[in-house]
Write a structure and sequence with these properties.
Chains A, B, C: The active site is at residues 9, 198. Three copies of one chain form a homotrimer. By secondary structure, chain A is α+β, with helices and mostly antiparallel strands. The first copy, chain A, has five helices and twelve strands. In chain A, strands 2, 6, 7, 9, 10, 11 and 12 form a seven-stranded antiparallel sheet that branches. Chain A starts with 15 loop residues before the first helix and ends with a helix.
């Protein structure tokens, strides 16, 4: 579809969140279709996890987004989908890869939302494809356990913060979940949640560096908990780390099904977003360093540095590998 | 994309206007891409005309709309696009043709919106395709001249109307044209206009018969005049004809570029929409007969009857032809 | 959240209606949460009244709106909420108070929408807070009775009106109530109604003065009647008064639950909006005087003048009081 002014920031760059939402919708369609392809209980595929995603080039207003999705692995209860987004300038015909994402879905019964159904297996062209998929499946399973533990953290408000401190840019947003945010099961689409997370992360980044910013990457996101229609969700973001030209923001989503008394407020999702600041010519600009004050902030900064260096090392390894071929 | 609650009426049937908007967006993308495929002045394809469209089966919330577009003819200054919409129930895998539409676009220069550029010719597989396309081109050209003359008509307000009269159900809506309604040239997308027209026509139909209604068909629509960002548009609809099970509604779009003093209010588009009323089981219901009072209303009723009988005859001829093959 | 192009007019000023909608959403969340904080029947807080609100400074595209809400008084069956909106330019860090609003909510049972539940009392820090709240409660109760009587008025269409007359700028809009417009109870959010009212009032103001206009204030609005999902609402506005630099517009909302035959069209809300016209530098411009023709128009003009002078006197008294401290 054509990118509209509301999909973009004031510099005309499409929000990463808009792209994540399109990716998730494509993934939900293809995996729901697959899981219902055999006779049996009807089901809706729910997003369980998105792998780390890099935004390779910013998309602009007026460009057309081409989204294509493919099922690349199935385990007994989950589906791996790869989604590619190309941006196309229909005036010049130029096409660029915007990003590639890997998503995991789980089929939930339409009659009983707590029942996970079995996934029909796909056919692999080569045996290695299945083995590699299985490896990816085991890796993500481990990672999902880890985030589940980290999820207890809370963002406290800070009064009269100094510029460039964590408290200065931290932000939160509340949203009342409406019908169009939800799947047929009455739970929020993962893509809607990611769009809101990107919105908050973008505000944190802009408050910190006060220039035009764009989403550079999103770390793996695990959806441990469903969010029901009518809930109020609070999305909070705080900066955890800055390198010379990038900012890492941690985002939490808390759901409050406040009319339904049976359950209190709970942490639904959390994730790390990385932003860069762009000049008018689209070149990355240096960003102000984050001032850490408390012990926790210093620890999170070091952890962020660890993630940053690890990603950098991985990318260099990939580039060397590519150069050798 | 997946149909959401906001795309549908309370009975769960997707608004015809939502479908028309998707069709027009697909047409605008493919024809803008084609017109920019050769080196030269960049341009944006603007909708000039939509041929008569039948809605073959209602689409529902949760279904996925598959839209495909193809260029079928090019004249020197216009492009004919055929768009097919299939609705897919991803739970059952069932697919149905929702509708097929033919649209005509004209490439306008990005630098000078009043300049119509030349269209690169397409290659035809068979010579007859070009001849048939040329015939369609000539036919629509004639029809466009006709509506241009009809466009002077105005809807007058009526005080305290009786049920089932024209005045009782006539409705109008105003809309301030926002940035997301517009193309890169700053003019309203034809699809946005059609969606609003369907909204008004649907309200007229519902006011008349007070039951669940769906768009059955839209007569050819000619876009004679562009509508600029920031304009206020008034969309008015009145019922012109009822058969036993269908209602014909005439819709006018008037634009008022009220910040720009150089031009007063003008008629931008007009069209006929046909609606049917559906029971809970999806069967067409009888509709109350329209009570005509003035001479003009009686004349319009007769004209509507003419269109109705003509369409019916055409459809029967097509069915006989199909039966013979 | 960040203000988007669609939230604003072509001059980049955010619509007052967008801000009113955010305010109401915050109020609905905090009061629904409070009313469900004690064990008992689950309920949804419905907007009963908004006190007069001044828009202190216009918000622009790209700014972030910070909305904070606090419960300031509870009676047996109602909750008073104060909501503050700050606009923040995240590039410069500049913050401005956009407006402060006071809203009254009533808890309706989720099981039986006609049953008003009891509100858990709040704790006051000082005894005077409770007394002052009670005074405000009694005052608004009186005012609600008054508007109920005024609500019979109707806007008649006028044919071929002269510029600057009441008939020339009067406007109306119809809207089909969709699922996203509604609360869990299936009734329209007060904020959605206010946004539509501001949209109509803004079109009336723009038609009258044909320049860039912004909402300056909204008089107290009483929500006497609920509006059900699937209804058609007609929002009509007419200008009642002009001072040198402001325009007062009266807006009526009529609901037609047309699928549900048990009830005819009824008046749901009415309110007065005040608009000013701004130059490119953001300075208020003189506005053309309203030409009154009929006796009713002259009477309404005088009443509007009364409200204008009363507000002006109040504001001067407040400024003197502030200067003395």
């Amino acid at each position: 579809r054509i990118m509209r002014p509301d999909d973009a920031n004031i510099a005309g760059n499409v929000h990463g969140g808009t792209i994540l939402k399109m990716i998730e919708e494509a993934g939900a369609i293809i995996s729901t279709r697959h899981c219902n392809s055999q006779a049996g209980e009807p089901c809706v595929a729910a997003l369980a996890r998105v792998e780390r995603t890099d935004f390779l080039s910013p998309m602009c207003i007026g460009e057309v987004a081409n989204v294509s999705a493919e099922i690349t692995y199935t385990s007994r209860h989950s589906v791996e989908v790869q989604v590619n987004v190309m941006s196309e300038n229909i005036l010049t015909g130029a096409k660029k890869v915007t990003n590639k994402a890997t998503l995991w879905y789980v089929p939930l019964s339409l009659k009983n939302v707590n029942k996970v159904l079995e996934v029909p297996p796909i056919q692999y062209v080569r045996k290695e494809q299945e083995d590699e998929g299985k490896k990816r499946y085991e890796e993500q399973k481990l990672d999902r356990l880890e985030t589940k533990q980290r999820n207890g953290d809370v963002i406290f408000p800070i009064i009269n913060p100094e510029p460039h401190t964590v408290g200065y840019s931290q932000s939160s947003l509340i949203h009342l979940v409406g019908p169009s945010d939800c799947t047929l099961l009455g739970f929020v689409h993962g893509g809607v949640t990611m769009k809101l997370m990107d919105e908050v992360a973008g505000i944190v980044a802009a408050r910190h560096c006060k220039t035009n910013i764009v989403t550079a990457s999103v770390d793996a996101i695990n959806f441990h908990e469903k969010i029901k229609k009518g809930s109020v969700i609070t999305i909070s973001g705080r900066m955890t780390f800055t390198s010379n030209k990038s900012m890492e923001i941690e985002v939490f989503v808390d759901a409050d099904p406040f009319v339904d008394e049976s359950r209190g407020r709970y942490r639904a999702v959390s994730a790390f977003f990385t932003y860069v600041s762009l000049s008018k010519e689209g070149k990355p600009l240096p960003v102000p360093q984050l001032l850490t004050e408390t012990e926790d902030e210093k620890r999170r900064f070091e952890e962020g540095k660890g993630r940053y260096l690890q990603t950098k090392a991985k990318r260099q390894a990939q580039m060397q590998q590519a150069a050798q071929h």
